[in-house]
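Cross-check.
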Amino acid sequence: MAFTCLLMCGLIAFLHIFSIPNPEAVLLTALGLVCGVLGYQSGIVCAVLQVMYLFYFYSEGHTLISFTSENLLKVVVSLICVAVNIAVIEELRENWEFSRKKLTGANRNLREMFHRADEMLYESKRKGKNCFTGNIGIKAGTENKAM
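Predicted model, tokenized:
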């Protein structure tokens, strides 16, 4: 969380010092990166700092309470965009995490299956009998097709 605060405060300072005319685009990109990489909680911290800066940026005379009707509309649209951004990115993160866990489990099962097959092959060779020969297999020097 502290890293997110420092990152966003540094970005906001950069935007303010260099008078970037449209900070929303930069801040929404940062929000997407932070939420996607560091998670939902960091995204919330990032969003709060972003909204506070946009209140400051769009307010008349930077008073935080006085807005033109056009700038108030910009703030409202920004709030909606921030909320939607966080919700969509968190949903994508959850889907990715679910898929990753499912793939990890399938990979673990496959490794166990190969390990068991390897043990069976070793045991059959030790006994002098290959359990993997029979009607299905590949003979040396033939094409790759079932016998």
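The mean pLDDT is 86. The helical segments are 2-17, 23-38, 40-58, 69-126. Passed to J.P. for a second look.
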